[in-house]
User: What shape does this take?
Amino acid sequence: MQVIRIELGFEAAHRLTEKQAPCDNIHGHSYKVFFEFVSDVDVMQYTVPMFLDFKEAKAECRRVVNAYDHALVLQKDDELIPLLEEHTRIVQLDTYPTAEAMCYEFFYAIHKSDVGKWLRAVEVYETPTSMARYEEGGV
Assistant: This one.
């Protein structure tokens, strides 16, 4: 099995309105995102031994992540959206903007692309020591 892992980063703010704690305030993180692509193909049989072009995969991952860079990520029914949408870029999610939700969003955005057939997992680090991972399949 061959594994390719692409790392990107972005800066974003969010808030979790149901937490009734510091996270219900708008606050930011320096996120790290890892995209993991896999193939069972024996690439050594090819003239150019690779199953995925790094440049193509990284460009697609960057396209998805850049939508979040320097944005405020909120749940789509957050009461702050009408007050702030003229003044800042807002990414609206159907659910709370957690690292878990971002993993899911990133995974399915890439999954729809040309490189998506090789995507196995997405990891989002909200801090250097706290990470969420999404991959298809059950537990």
